[in-house]
Write a structure and sequence with these properties.
Blueprint lengths: L7 H8 L2 H11 L5 E5 L13 E5 L2 E7 L9 H4 L3 E3 L6 H12 L8 E4 L6 H9 L5 E5 L3 H14 L4 E5 L2 H10 L6 E7 L12 H6 L2 H18 L3 E11 L8 H12 E4 L1 E3 L34 E3 L2 E3 L9 E8 L9 H11 L1 E2 L28 E3 L2 H8 L13 E7 L2 E8 L4 E3 L20
Length: 450
């Protein structure tokens, strides 16, 4: 049984009903589930992993595994064929799909910001479900985390992604200076939080928790949202999420955004079989009717209810703690913004991380393509074995088949592209990015999709 922080239960018994607190404590002591999400651009919809158990109910690409394998040993993970992601956070896929149905929001020319995106799980969902022409700005303010984000987005693939390293106020400043840019159509604010939802698998989440830390996180979250709010166009949507349970960082902050910044809280349809919960406070602190159910008019679906707040509680759902709410900014815009022009503004005024290292490592191939649009079709593809794929990812030299073309080639495993090499006949010089290499040699190569 995990040791919860001092004062944790007492805090929640003050703001939740006792039965709900008991359920949370029991859930935090259960085994942590393991789940992955397949890349629909890389694997067929019916692809099924070795040791797969069942689908994640709210995300058709999500799959629970019976046990946790050594993911690092699988070349298909590094090729972006799937992403290891906690199941509750895959709820974003459901939210995006409901937006398509309920308010027909997604436009081919939309511009979307993932504000606090590292390590990239939610950005990969966005990129998979947004229209191909939509522009995704995937941002992380901290340098080291931003580098991990850029790596994961490069491996996942798909065009029209820019990875930036900036704070919210800097992004808003650039957006407001660009007179041709009306603002982001969607902003995902998965804000830094106290991490209560990670307590059963992260010791640090338990060590750092205190009521004061919760209050500090709530204040930081409001500051971040307030900074980025001017960059959201009138009528635009904000998806606000945390991996916490407490109302200060969740319900209260969403109500503060709606009341102080000007927005409607849009209910999200959910299926009762998922056991997603709504407002968990004993008494609502809402000062005004901020929910706008009319935004879901004419929705024809089989989902059983619509919640203004969505809570995922371990033990009740098969996943970690997660909270999500959807807000629509007051006002209307002419939707005449030019996202391509704005991306040029970003490139000139913010730190943009390279995402084409799989296409042009060390100058091997000249490319101005954005992440994931794929290498030049003229570059030959060479299929290699599982063992050679793993050695390539360790950045070792390998020998290619005698009939492999000389020069720059794309190395693939199970048809999935890993990166580039320069075949000189006796060996292939490894052009995989140095900073991405597998550093440990103690893994036995293995794949979830044999």
């Amino acid at each position: 049984m995990i040791a919860l922080p001092a004062g944790f239960e007492d805090y929640f018994r003050r703001v939740w009903d006792g039965e709900m607190v008991d359920a949370l404590v029991r859930g935090l002591d259960e085994e942590v589930p393991v789940s992955i999400r397949i890349n629909p651009a890389r694997l067929p919809a019916d692809a099924w992993p070795e040791d797969g158990e069942s689908r994640v109910p709210w995300c058709s690409e999500g799959i629970y595994l019976n046990q946790r394998p050594q993911f690092t040993a699988d070349p298909l993970l590094h090729a972006g064929a799937y992403y290891v992601q906690e199941a509750s956070s895959m709820f974003l896929a459901h939210v995006l799909r409901r937006l398509n149905v309920s308010i027909n929001f997604q436009k081919s020319a939309s511009t979307v910001l993932d504000l606090c995106a590292a390590p990239g799980g939610k950005s990969t969902i966005l990129r998979s479900l947004l229209p191909p022409e939509a522009m995704l700005v995937s941002n992380e303010p901290l340098r080291q985390r931003a580098q991990v984000l850029a790596e994961n987005m490069a491996k996942w693939g798909s065009g029209n992604v820019v990875v930036t390293q900036a704070y919210a106020k800097d992004i808003a400043r650039v957006a407001n200076r660009d007179r041709l840019f009306a603002g982001f159509d969607i902003i995902l604010a998965d804000v830094p939080c106290s991490g209560e939802g990670m307590m059963r698998k992260e010791d640090e989440a338990r060590r750092q928790w205190s009521p004061q830390f919760v209050a500090d996180c709530a204040a930081l979250q409001r500051s971040i949202v307030e900074d980025i709010w001017p960059a959201l166009r009138p009528g635009g949507l904000m998806i606000y999420s945390t991996c916490t349970f407490n109302p200060e960082e969740d319900e209260c902050n969403v109500e503060w955004i709606a009341r102080e910044l000007g927005a409607d809280i849009i209910p999200i349809p959910v299926d009762s079989s998922w056991h997603v919960l709504g407002d968990l406070r004993r008494h609502s602190l809402s000062a005004a009717p901020l929910t706008n159910p009319s935004s879901l008019a004419n929705v024809d679906d089989q989902l059983s209810s619509a919640l203004p707040f969505c809570h995922f509680i371990p033990g009740l759902v098969r996943g970690e703690g997660f909270f999500c709410a959807l807000l629509q900014k007051h006002g209307e815009s002419d939707e005449g913004s030019k996202n391509a022009h704005f991306i040029d503004s970003i490139a000139k005024n913010l730190t943009v991380l390279p995402t084409d290292l799989l296409d042009s490592p060390e100058g091997a191939v000249s490319s101005s393509k954005r992440v994931g649009q794929g290498s030049d079709a003229a570059i030959p593809r060479v299929e290699i074995s599982l063992v050679d794929a793993f050695r390539y990812l360790q950045r070792e030299a390998i020998a290619l088949p005698p009939d492999a073309p000389r020069g720059i080639v794309q190395l693939c495993y199970h048809g999935q592209r890993l990166g580039l090499a320069k075949n000189i006949g006796s060996r292939a010089n490894n052009l995989y990015p140095k900073e991405w290499r597998i550093r440990s040699g103690h893994f036995a190569p293995h794949t979830l999709f044999p």
